[in-house]
Amino acid sequence: MDDPQWLTWARQLQAIAQTGLTYAKDTYDLERYASVRQVAAEMMAAGSGLKDWVTVLDLFQQEAGYATPKVDVRAAVFRDNRVLLVKEREDNCWTLPGGWADVGDAPSQAAIRETKEESGYDVVATKIAAVYDRNRHGHPPIPYHAYKLFFLCEIVGGQSACSHETVAVDFFAEDRIPALSLTRVTPKQISHLFDHHRHPEWPTSFD
């Protein structure tokens, strides 16, 4: 399901405002871009049922520079034809290890780091299986536009360990996947990654 049109418009307005506030020099232009950002915040708050649009505006104001999509990395780690999942403390649902890439991280290194932090396992990335536009793959809407990068990884060490973000770590067969944290990963994506695991010769999926 595509994101609602109001959310797409609000994101686009916020991106225009953020980029304008970064490069504009004229005082009047800066005021106009600030007004556009406020309209985007009010639109997003109204569309999502929030009464306090100022909270959304504060979220937008934390973003600076030329507006680009955020990058989310996920590691698909297989052992004995089962995939590694971690249970998120935030929503008590399961997901592939991963999260937002940090500045300074290479994409695969971000996936490796997140896997270690959230599951306790040391892995190496062997293939980038998919590069997706988050908006096109059935995730619940969020304020940001994001790309999702899925890496196939192999365990080289470590042991199961939870973190401040995760409350359980386990491996699951394809027909035993538990309730997923849909903001992070979908059943269709899990299934596709099992296919990539079975067919390492497949090219990277994208968009």
Mind explaining what this structure looks like?
This protein is of the alpha+beta class. It has 2 domains: 5-61; 70-206, Nucleoside Triphosphate Pyrophosphohydrolase (Alpha-Beta Complex). It is built from 5 helices and 8 strands, in the order αααββββαβββαβ. It has helices at residues 5-23, 27-48, 53-61, 107-119, 187-198, and strands at residues 70-79, 82-88, 94-95, 98-100, 121-133, 146-158, 166-172, 205-206. Strands 1, 2, 3, 4, 5, 6, 7 and 8 form an 8-stranded mixed β-sheet that branches. β2 and β3 (94-95) form a beta hairpin. α1 (5-23) packs antiparallel against α2 and α2 crosses α3 (53-61). The longest helix has 22 residues, at 27-48. The protein is elongated and about 60 Å long. The protein starts with a helix and ends with a strand. The mean pLDDT is 95.
Quick overview:
This protein is of the alpha+beta class and 207 residues long.
Describe the secondary-structure layout.
Layout: H1 5-23, H2 27-48, H3 53-61, E1 70-79, E2 82-88, E3 94-95, E4 98-100, H4 107-119, E5 121-133, E6 146-158, E7 166-172, H5 187-198, E8 205-206
Parallel strand pairs: 1-6, 5-8
Antiparallel strand pairs: 1-2, 1-4, 2-3, 2-7, 5-6
Helix pairs in contact: 1-2, 2-3
